[in-house]
Structure formats: structure tokens, C-alpha cells
């Protein structure tokens, strides 16, 4: 037991539950087909010691081998995505079933090879459905006619990372909250990894655990900076079967620097925001911002930092490096999220300014950070990146070519369905080996629908911004094609649209030709470009 | 002025605004391309005198004729759908643009012929987007940096039906609320039709008008029978330009009697509910019920009336005849909706029991009745009928063959996205002229997506109930095909599924063959049956 560990675990009962050898924990508590919950959100704050021990145990005992009857595979739940440790488990084929979101080369490979069953779920809904008993239907829950108690048997084991435990037994979480409150409430057994390599993050969290209906109460937030929850998590200490020390750090890769195209997208958005303010559709300090992960999202926030807006507020699921610039120039008043996902550089920047900046950061459970009730009430500006959108405003956020899972729906759906401003942004084309414009982000009919035409207010590419508010489908098609599609795809998309109109006599609401709507994908498959690229065309561009 | 009218309009200022000749109102206030709001929801409580006068005026002056420059066409907003009067306007081609939902032969025809632009919107979101100024972007709104006032210029005219006006100027609405509160707040001019043929419905309404963000407050309902709003609507009386008497009744057609198949669907659902209660996933009195419109929905409620459940609660958008049976046998404690859509028979039944039954009915604005915040908190059981669903659980609620608009998304999306139990139900097949099973409700890939795989917990046909909770896409496909598809389509759907798996090496999350996923529609188009029906097959069934 390290001195720092003893210092961090100030509750005697839990300190006595220290187990030095994680393999012992694995051997004692883990069994094939269990339902397991891991803390963590977007690769931050997940357990590390136990997943590593699970992998070691599995390898050592030759489990999960093709043809072998000896299995140790789990129904694994993580708030959103775990870190590299989950990917190691995927490599050992330990994940039987997984929800609601994942990031990692190995886990994605297992899902798309058919080894791992995966279903993606809206991130604020997922922990509640788990506590409804929806994912393990053989269980009997506490009688709702007699008690408002949540079930404590929907998970066999919850494994969570903390940064400290107070004398009163209150758990001090780390840089992510995710679904940890629901996992701890819903698990029969709890294992706590206390990470001593990172700061004890007391004071950052605002933790609320809602009851199931008919006992659920309003989330009475009307401002981003309101705190209505507790700083620490209180749990049934009897359920804790082991406490371990972790000295393994999270690994967040560096961000790609903003490129010209994402800067253009940011600039279109800022022009749009300024016009909204001009017409008094938004206050001068805008409305609470939600921003997805990725290059474009980072650029947009970067653009905001240099555009003169003041007193901005962020209500999002992930706090990222780009927000630090807004803290640095004083334009961001408060940032609410469920995860601080900072690169090592970003984390050290935050550490240097901890006393002033950490006061402006609030970490909430994903049931709160992503809750439609609050997103709608606060009137958020939601900005996310799709795989592709179609001419009528449906978007695909998850399945490439209709079938291949990327990461899952994440928070994009709950934010875009409930926000006042629902915005999607992406670069209009991407290269293939044979065509620099081989893939268009704007297609006639998306191969998978996650966000529908009813959700999206604006769509932005480096070409421009399509303002879809109040437009009927045929108007939307022209707006999207003319403002957002890359010039090499405009004539192709217009031709599809006009041909479909001719075909759709008497069904002109949203003209489609189901015989031709997927042709671009077939071109890509057969000729390496969605525009049926031929060598001779190249000279044109 | 009739005696009863004078008795109903007890406010002197408004009584003085009586205009006897509605054509005068039309001539004075209505102009081409205005933004007009009509009260009404599901064909109930809409204005009648003014729409009829608008039609007369249009016909008389030969407006909107092909090639003519003389136009009188409107951007028309109705909470959901108006009655026959709107259809008369559609016949005169008076509707330039329409949102968020419509029902009627003529209006649908205009939309699908391309004469009328239509966009369907989630019903609780629509009135709020109108007050955001999203549908008329040239306007400048009140400065949100200085005031929480809602704009009063987003509509040129609101025309609403009322059943009375109190001395204090409070408007007593009739059998629907819909978007009337937002229309009256957002209009420059107001015209009130006081309908003297129906009962003055004082005491039925619970009216809340929310502010725009950043001023919006929680909807603090935690129970269906809570009343947090006012009984009457208070408006700026200066905006009222005319009050007229209406003696025209609403026309609701009789319901089709329940058939064997819809009774089977009801029975599957009741078995499902009983199992949920058994496992304590629901209390004995279930959770607040939302039920769509139509034959199947009616059957389900009818089935509930005979299944021994007590103390039921309804939180829905439309109160229909079938609920009266629940009142009659004492099993329904309270019904919240935004419209009482009763057949003449149902209305007279309610009238006979008015004193006891009306106390259990609460009419709310559609921003409340359909609000995701409340649907999620109360944990509703949402049940709606789609056009079709696909094997992975996506549903089409609006566009036949991807293009032809039926009625619009209505409340189905907000309820299904937010409910604890999101259920869709439909008959598994429908006949075509040449095949008694020519159309299947379960297809490989829906031709339009309104509800996604992330929304639906259970799907029910007369064949059975598919419980999709916690299932990954490939599991869902088998559950839906085996439990819900009609036996004549099961092998065809299974073949599609298995062939797609073979095709989707490395993209096995949601296997599809985009070359073949729409083949059933082509069969229908070319051969009159989705199963490529040939005469010789007929003997088999």
C-alpha cells in the first residue's frame, strides 16, 4: 500500500478491503456471461487494473479460443467508451455483448466481424434503461407498488475508477462521471480502483441519481452553472468487494491541427450565429454550446475563441482541449460535461491554471449532461459530425455503407433532437485512392438513418451553410445541394433530384427513385469513387 | 347577435368587436402570403366561419387559378390538423405552405402533387420553433438580452375557436388546445370564433405558456393529474380585430369496429404488460398510457378495458372514444390530452356523464401533452402505428414508398423517443388487388425513416410481439421476423437477412445488401405484390 493510496482512501472500512493482487479478484468474482459495468467516458476515467488482470487471466487459461468450451465473455456496459484496456479485452474476445458506445480498433473489429454483439443507445437513456431491468429480463426488481428503491441486481459487478474516498465513505470520482452513479446503484458487487497518479478531483462533480418512474422528479436546472447534486457518491459499502490501487494513466492522443476546410466551416457557423444575434433569435452570449469530438468540432470552438463572443456557456458531454482557449481569453463562463477528455498537453495546461479554471468546470452524470429535458429547456446549440447526410436532411452517424459500425449514436441524437439549434457539420468530400473527391458527404439517400429530417436545423460544410429551418423537403434539397455539396457533386445530386421529381407524379412530397438512390455507393464499390470517376474526368479538377 | 352568444362573450371590449359579416374580415385583414395560425388538433376545435369565408372570397374573386396572377395563398399553421374547412381551402389551392401535420384528402393531394409545400414537425416542438422566429426569418424579435417577452409578430393572424370569454377577458377554449396559446401570443392580429353549438368547457383546461430560452422554466409535473396552469387564456385584447359567432360543428367520422387481428395485437400487448408487472418493471396500474389514432390503437385500449387493470392513467395527445369504456368501468383515473376527439356517439356519451367524467379529463397545450421532458419523467407507455418497420427496428410513419406523404410525424416521434416503453403496432400484411397478402408491414429496409432502431422497445403484429430491448441488430432481425412477420413473408425476409450476412464480411453490425433492400417495393410496383406474387403461388395459401 503506497503512502499516497492510504492518504486517498480515508474511509477505514474501504481501506480494509484493499486487495493487492488483482488476479485474485478476477478468480473470485468474475464468471462467464456476467453483466459488468465499467466507469469511463470517451476513453477517460475507466478502470485499468482489473481489465488488465482479466486479460492476463484469460490468456493464461486459454479462454475464448476458437472451438474451446472454456469461455470468459461478458455483457459489458461502459458509460460511453473505455480506454485502451477495453481494446485489450476485445483482442482477447472477452466481450460477448456491448452497449451503448465504443471507440477502439479492436472492439470495432470484433463488432464488425460478428464476434461481439453491440447495440448503440442514446447516452442519457442507457443508464436508465439498465436500471429499468431492460437488459437482463430474467431478474425481478424491487416492487414499485411498495418502494421507490432502484434495483441493485442489474449488474453482477461494477468496476469504477475513483480519485479518492472520504472518511464518510463518499467516493470522489475522477475526470469522468458517465454512468458510474447508476452502475454503483445497480450492481451486486463493486470494485473500486483508486488512481493515485492523477489529482484528487474533489469539488468538480455535481452528482444526481434519478429514481425510476413513477417516482422520478424534475431535473430543476435552469442555468448551466447551477449545482443541485452532491460532490461525492454515497454507496452501500457492503457491496464493495475490493479496492485496488491504480497507477495507470489514461492515454488521449493529440488532436489533429485545424485545417483550411474546418476553419471555413467554423467561419460559416460564426457568421450564422452573428446573424441570429442580430435578429434577436439568440442573446449576445449565444446559448449553451454542445460540441462533438473531432477536428471540425475543435475548429469551431477555436473559431469562437477568436470571434469576440463573451460570457459563453458550454453544456456538452465532453470537455476538450479547445475549450481551454476560451478559458484563457476569458470568454467562457462555465463548462458542464460528463468527461474531461484532455490531451497530456491540455491536462498540464489545466493543471497550471487549476485554481481559477477548475471552478468553471462541472462534471455531471451522462443522464444529466445529455438529458433531453435540459437540452430543450436551456435551448442548446448542438453541433455534431455525421458520416453523411442526404439531400432531404437525414443523417447517418453510425453505419458506413448501412452496415459497418463506427462508434455508435453517442450523444448526437439526444442533443440534435432536443437542442434549439441542431447543427451538423462535415467536410463535403473525402479522397479515395483513385479520386481526390471520391467520397461525398452529401448523398441522395443515406444508407443508415440516425438523425431524421425532423431533427436538423442547419447543415454546414466548407462550401457553406444550409439553413433548413422552416423548409419543406424539396426546398431543403436545393438548399443543401447548392450551399453544401462540393461543386463536383452538385450536378450529380441535382440530376438525381430532378429525375426523381419527374418520376414522382402524385408523390411529390419527398421525391425519390428507390432504384437509383444508392447508386453512388455502387460506384464507390465498383469504380473507387462515388461520382463514377473516370481517368479522363481528372483534368477537369 | 344570438342570446347565447351574448351570454358566452361576457367581456365588454370583446363583445364590441363582434363582426357579423365574415367576408368583411377577410377583405380587411387577409393578404396573399401571410403567416396564419388556426386553432384545432386532430380535426377538433378549429375555426370554421373564417375558413369558409376565405374560400368564398377566393372563389368569388377567381384567385389562385392556374396562370392567374391574383393569388391568396397562406403559410398555414395548425396545432396538428384542422377539420373539413381546411380541406375546402386546399381544394381552392389556398395553402402555399403547411406545417406540422395534416389530415384530409384535399390537403394531402395538394402536398403530393407539389402544389403545397409541407414539412412535418414534432408536435411539441413546433409551437416553440414558431416562437423562436424560425419560420419567418426576416423578422426581428424582442431583444433577449433585455426582456423575456415572446415575439408577437411571428404570425400575421391567429384564428381560434373558443367556447366562451369571461368578464375578465379570459378565453375559455373548447375541445382542443393544440398550439392556441402560442398562436395567440405570437400573432399580430387575433380573430376569435365563439362556437355556440357546443358546451362552454370551463374547468377542463390546464394552460401553460413557456418562455423562450434562456428564460424557460421546468415543467414541474410529476403526476398526470397535477394542474399547474390556468383554466383560461389571457391575451392582449388590443390584438383582437374581430369576434364572430360560429354555429358549425366538428365532424368526426365513426370508428371502424375492432377486427380479429387488432384484437390479437391487443392481447399480445396485455400479456406483455402483465409480464412486466410480474417482474416489477411496472407498477400494477402500469404507467401513463399514450395511444395513437386508429383501429389498432382503439382495440388496444378496448382490450385494456377488459383485462382487470385498475387506476390506469392516460397521458396522450388525443382523447378518443375507447377511453370512455375505461371511465365507464372505473379503471381509468385520469386522462390528459390536448384534444377530445370523439365521434358524435362518444360526445353524447361524455355529455351524459359530464359531471363525473369531465373531472378526470385535462386538456393541455401540445407543448405540454407531447413534451419529451414529461414523457420521459412520467415513464409513459407509448403505442403508435407505423406505415412499416424493417428487420432492424427502424420505422416509417410518414412517407409511403419513401416519397408520398400521409399525415406527418405527429406525436409519434416525441412519444417513442422519450417513453419508457416505446411500442409500435400494426397488422402484418395488407391486401393488394391481386394478392390478399400483397403488402407486408415488415420489410428489409424501410423506404423512409422516422423512428430509428434506437427508439423502439417492442413491435407487435397479430402474429406476436417482438421484445427488442437489449438486443443487437442481428438479434432484433430474427426476433422481428420470427415473432411479427406474416408466415408468407418470413422465408423471404430470412433469405434477405442471411444473404446480407454472407455479403457483409467485416461489416456485420447491421448486414444489408443495398442492391436488394428495396426489391419488395419493385415487386409491388411491377407485379402487384411485395412477394413477387404469381398466380400459381395462390394455391399455397
UniProtKB/TrEMBL annotation, chains A, B:
UniProt EC number: 3.1.2.1
Enzyme class: hydrolase
Gene3D superfamilies registered for this protein in UniProt: 4-hydroxybutyrate coenzyme like domains (3.30.750.70), Acetyl-CoA hydrolase/transferase C-terminal domain (3.40.1080.20), Glutaconate Coenzyme A-transferase (3.40.1080.10)
Molecular-function GO terms, alphabetical: acetate CoA-transferase activity; acetyl-CoA hydrolase activity
Keywords associated with the record: Hydrolase
Ranges for domain Acetyl-CoA hydrolase/transferase C-terminal: 346-496
InterPro entries in UniProt: AcetylCoA_hyd_C, AcetylCoA_hyd_C_sf, ActCoA_hydro, ActCoA_hydro_N, NagB/RpiA_transferase-like
Reaction equation(s) it catalyzes: acetyl-CoA + H2O = acetate + CoA + H(+)
A Pfam match: AcetylCoA_hydro
Gene Ontology CC entries for this record: mitochondrion
Domain Acetyl-CoA hydrolase/transferase N-terminal: 16-245
Family as reported in the entry's similarity comment: Belongs to the acetyl-CoA hydrolase/transferase family.
Protein's UniProt name: Acetyl-CoA hydrolase
Organism: Hanseniaspora valbyensis NRRL Y-1626
Lineage of origin: Eukaryota, Fungi, Dikarya, Ascomycota, Saccharomycotina
Amino acid at each position: 500500500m503506497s503512502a499516497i493510496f492510504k492518504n486517498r482512501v480515508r474511509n477505514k472500512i474501504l481501506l480494509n478491503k484493499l486487495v493487492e493482487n488483482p488476479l485474485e479478484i478476477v478468480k473470485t468474482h468474475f464468471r462467464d456471461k456476467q453483466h459488468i459495468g465499467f466507469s469511463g467516458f470517451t476513453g477517460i476515467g475507466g478502470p485499468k487494473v482489473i481489465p488488465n488482470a482479466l486479460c492476463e487471466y484469460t490468456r493464461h487459461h486459454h479462454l475464448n479460443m476458437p472451438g474451446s468450451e472454456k469461455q470468459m465473455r461478458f455483457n459489458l456496459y461502459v458509460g460511453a467508451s473505455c480506454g485502451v484496456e477495453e481494446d485489450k479485452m476485445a483482442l482477447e474476445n472477452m466481450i460477448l455483448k456491448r452497449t451503448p458506445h465504443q471507440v477502439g480498433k479492436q472492439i470495432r473489429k470484433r463488432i464488425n466481424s460478428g464476434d461481439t454483439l453491440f447495440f448503440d443507445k442514446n447516452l442519457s437513456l442507457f443508464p436508465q434503461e439498465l436500471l429499468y431491468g431492460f437488459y437482463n429480463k430474467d431478474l425481478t426488481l424491487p416492487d414499485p407498488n411498495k418502494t421507490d428503491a432502484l434495483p441493485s441486481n442489474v449488474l453482477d459487478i461494477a468496476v469504477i475508477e475513483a480519485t479518492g474516498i472520504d472518511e464518510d465513505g463518499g467516493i470522489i470520482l475522477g475526470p469522468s462521471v458517465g454512468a458510474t452513479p447508476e452502475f454503483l446503484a445497480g450492481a451486486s458487487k463493486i470494485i473500486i480502483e483508486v488512481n493515485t497518479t492523477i489529482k484528487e478531483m474533489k469539488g468538480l462533480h455535481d452528482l444526481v441519481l434519478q429514481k425510476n418512474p413513477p417516482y422520478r422528479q424534475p431535473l430543476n436546472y435552469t442555468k448551466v452553472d447551477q449545482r443541485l447534486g452532491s460532490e461525492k457518491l454515497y454507496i452501500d459499502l457492503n457491496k464493495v468487494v475490493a479496492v485496488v490501487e491504480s497507477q495507470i494513466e489514461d492515454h488521449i492522443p493529440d488532436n489533429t491541427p485545424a485545417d483550411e476546410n474546418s476553419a471555413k466551416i467554423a467561419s460559416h457557423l460564426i457568421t450564422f450565429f452573428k446573424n441570429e444575434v442580430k435578429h434577436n433569435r439568440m442573446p449576445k452570449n449565444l446559448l449553451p454550446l454542445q460540441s462533438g469530438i473531432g477536428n471540425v468540432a475543435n475548429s469551431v470552438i477555436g473559431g469562437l475563441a477568436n470571434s469576440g463572443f463573451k460570457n459563453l456557456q458550454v453544456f456538452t458531454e465532453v470537455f476538450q482541449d479547445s475549450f481551454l482557449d476560451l478559458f484563457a481569453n476569458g470568454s467562457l463562463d462555465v463548462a458542464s460535461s460528463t468527461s474531461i477528455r484532455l490531451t497530456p498537453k491540455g491536462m498540464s495546461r489545466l493543471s497550471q491554471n487549476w485554481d481559477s479554471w477548475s471552478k468553471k468546470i462541472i462534471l455531471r452524470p451522462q443522464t444529466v449532461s445529455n438529458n433531453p429535458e435540459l437540452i430543450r429547456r436551456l435551448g442548446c446549440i448542438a453541433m455534431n459530425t455525421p458520416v453523411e447526410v442526404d439531400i432531404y436532411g437525414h443523417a447517418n452517424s453510425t453505419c458506413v455503407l448501412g452496415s459497418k459500425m463506427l462508434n455508435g449514436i453517442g450523444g448526437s441524437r439526444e442533443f440534435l433532437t432536443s437542442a434549439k439549434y441542431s447543427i451538423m457539420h462535415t467536410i463535403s468530400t473525402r479522397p479515395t485512392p483513385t479520386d481526390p473527391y471520391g467520397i461525398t458527404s452529401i448523398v441522395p439517400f443515406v444508407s443508415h438513418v440516425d438523425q431524421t429530417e425532423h431533427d436538423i436545423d442547419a447543415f454546414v460544410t466548407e462550401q457553406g451553410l444550409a439553413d433548413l429551418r422552416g423548409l419543406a423537403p424539396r426546398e431543403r434539397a436545393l438548399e443543401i445541394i447548392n450551399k453544401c455539396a462540393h461543386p463536383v457533386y452538385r450536378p450529380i445530386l441535382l440530376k438525381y433530384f430532378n429525375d426523381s421529381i419527374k418520376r414522382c407524379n402524385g408523390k411529390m412530397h419527398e421525391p425519390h427513385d428507390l432504384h437509383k438512390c444508392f447508386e453512388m455507393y455502387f460506384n464507390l464499390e465498383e469504380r473507387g469513387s462515388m461520382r463514377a470517376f473516370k481517368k479522363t474526368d481528372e483534368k477537369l479538377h
